[in-house]
Write a structure and sequence with these properties.
This protein is of the alpha/beta class and about 575 residues long. Helix content is about 45%, strand content about 10%. Helix 6 packs across helix 17 (about 425-440), helix 7 crosses helix 9 (about 195-205) and helix 18 (about 440-465) packs parallel to helix 21.
């Protein structure tokens, strides 16, 4: 088996400089950086407040009460520090469980520096530097996605970023429907996809009071009555078409935003766990036939179960054809919270680690209307750092709220974000990591290495003689599998793998995770797997062991342990 390490390539070695290392090998550099910026920060405070004199005097610091309180505080801090030594060591190459790993040192330092200054990115007035760096970080993420232009902001994570999309889709839909209904339109499906040009044409001469009475979510109970009077029939609730491999935040968002969890319609998956474009076409046509307003389509780039990438290029082609042939402007949002950073791999030699079809779909991300990203996953950035980005300003700036004490211009991002106060730490950490990694094409190298590591573990499991089922659709760095043993029924295979999971966790040699696929959404994949291995399909679920292989030090020539083989042997 080939051990993954390119020590002969200086750029690969340079990647090691981004991380502290499993045994704190880069400790001296990191502690020196922390010391430097802390000293810079304290000197800055002295310069700014120098004319006011010292307000904590030498005499104050010598008082017994002062010293006693400092000692008490020191004890509290040490106690917290010791408690966190019982935390799961996510930095360890043996941690291959969930979607977190080592933190890059540029991101960690950027995060820590920002905490010292405590900026609130609600406005430039409250965060002069933080808001500027957030803008630059969004620009860098736009470049990674492939947007020539774009607007967006940082959130606490992918869930809130998904809410940001759905909030805007709801507001846009509400405006488009109001303009269409006020001008006599009865085809509410077409109205929900009319496009901004048609909206402006229809709405330019409408009285403001009449328009507001037709806004679906402005005053729902009263306005629905007015809408019915104009249409002559009840307006059906708008629906959202989401890949059935969706994250659980989508039904949550529909519920919280008053759109109704039952109005999420799930697009079927194929036998590889990817969105079926044929079923997407059928569902859009069904909305047209039922005259149901459509909020948009959500595809996934890196599912939480398998790391699967939906067929983005085919989805884009389908929606482009609907726009070209029928004038329908349907919003395509990509939930790329997990896999979005893999788009950095499409350039150069690192692309060789990714399937050609997946590369095509990652390239097509630039055609989507909006994207959710989570730098605190494959961006190797500390929690919390998510991002929501729109390609078109008009989709982003649809609804604002502000207060009389907030000094800002009309397009201040803080007026348009769901969260009010927002720390700049996530943006600065992401900016620092993106900028530092530029020098050696760091993200492409690290994520390419993660995919190679996945293949190494897969090979090790096969070489160990384990009878293993690997599902299709393992497009990124997640390795999911079921050990089949000598079992002939799926229910027995599930019990075997649950037992293996529990024993692996109890042994403490490796930390892994598990997931469960259900036939409602993954039926084609489960049925195909059972048929291939001759298993009796006697249950509606399939349990898989799940490895998130993102730690850059899992496989290395320098380490004494071949973790791929060692893990396979532990399962034996």
């Amino acid at each position: 088996m080939r051990r993954t390490d390119s020590a002969c390539d200086p750029n690969e070695v340079a990647v090691k400089s981004f991380f502290l290392g499993p045994s704190a090998e880069n400790e001296e550099w990191l502690t020196g950086q922390i010391s430097d910026f802390l000293q810079s920060w304290t000197q800055w405070r002295k310069r700014v407040s120098g004319e006011d004199g010292g307000l904590i005097t030498d005499r104050d610091r010598e008082l017994p009460e002062f010293k006693r309180q400092q000692q008490f505080t020191s004890d509290v801090i040490r106690e917290i520090s010791r408690r966190f030594e019982d935390e799961i060591p996510k930095f360890s190459p043996r941690y291959i469980g969930h979607m977190f790993s080592e933190i890059s040192m540029p991101a960690l330092l950027g995060h820590m520096i920002t905490l010292l200054h405590n900026p609130n990115n609600i406005s430039v007035e409250a965060s002069t530097v933080g808001t500027e760096i957030e803008k630059q970080a969004i620009e860098a993420l736009c470049t990674m996605i492939g947007y020539s232009e774009g607007v967006g902001h940082f959130t606490s994570g992918g869930t809130v970023a998904n809410f940001e999309f759905l909030f805007r889709a709801r507001e846009r839909l509400s405006k488009w429907l109001a303009a269409a209904i006020a001008t006599g339109e009865k085809d509410v499906f077409r109205a929900s996809a009319m496009g901004w040009d048609e909206f402006h044409r229809r709405s330019q001469d409408l009285p403001e009071v009449d328009f507001r009475r037709l806004l679906l979510h402005e005053n729902p109970i009263e306005n629905l009555r007015t809408i019915r009077e104009h249409l002559g029939f009840d307006l059906k609730p708008p629906v959202l078409l989401v890949s059935a491999s969706k994250h659980y935040s989508w039904p949550k968002a529909m519920h919280y935003l008053g759109l109704g969890e039952p109005n999420v319609r799930y697009v079927k998956l194929d036998d590889k766990g990817r969105m079926s474009v044929a079923d997407l076409q059928l569902q859009i046509e069904q909305c047209r036939l039922e005259n149901i307003p459509l909020l948009g389509v959500v595809a996934i780039v890196g599912t939480t179960e398998l790391g699967t990438v939906d067929p983005i290029q085919a989805i884009v082609t389908t929606l482009d054809e609907l726009e070209r042939e029928h004038g329908l402007r349907i919003w395509l949002h990509l939930d790329a919270a997990y896999g979005g950073f893999f788009r950095s791999v499409i350039r150069g030699e690192a692309a060789g680690s990714i399937d050609v079809g997946v590369l095509r779909d990652l390239t097509a991300m630039k055609e989507a209307d909006s994207v959710t990203l989570d730098p605190h996953k494959l961006g190797y950035v500390p929690y919390a750092s998510g991002a929501f980005i729109c390609r078109d300003e008009e989709d982003y700036f649809v609804k604002s709220f502000t207060g009389p004490y907030i000094v800002s211009d009309r397009k201040n991002l803080g007026n348009f974000t769901i969260e009010g106060s927002r720390s700049a730490a996530g943006a600065v950490a992401t900016y620092a990591s993106l900028k530092a990694f530029e020098g050696s094409d760091g993200y492409a190298r690290i994520l390419s290495r993660a995919v190679s590591t996945k293949l190494e573990f897969r090979e090790a499991l096969i070489e160990a003689g384990l009878h293993v089922f690997f599902p299709e659709g393992l497009d990124t760095n997640l390795l999911c599998f079921a050990v089949l043993g000598k079992e002939t029924r799926l229910s027995d295979v599930n019990r075997l793998n649950l037992s293996l999971y529990e024993r692996c966790q109890a042994a403490g040699r490796y930390w892994i995770s598990k997931t469960t696929l259900n036939r409602d959404h993954f039926g084609a994949l489960i049925e195909g797997g059972c048929a291939k291995h001759g298993l009796t399909l006697d249950t509606d679920e399939m349990v898989l062991l799940r490895l998130t292989l993102m730690n850059p030090f899992v496989l290395s020539k320098e380490g004494p342990t071949d973790h791929a083989r060692a893990f396979a042997e532990s399962l034996q």
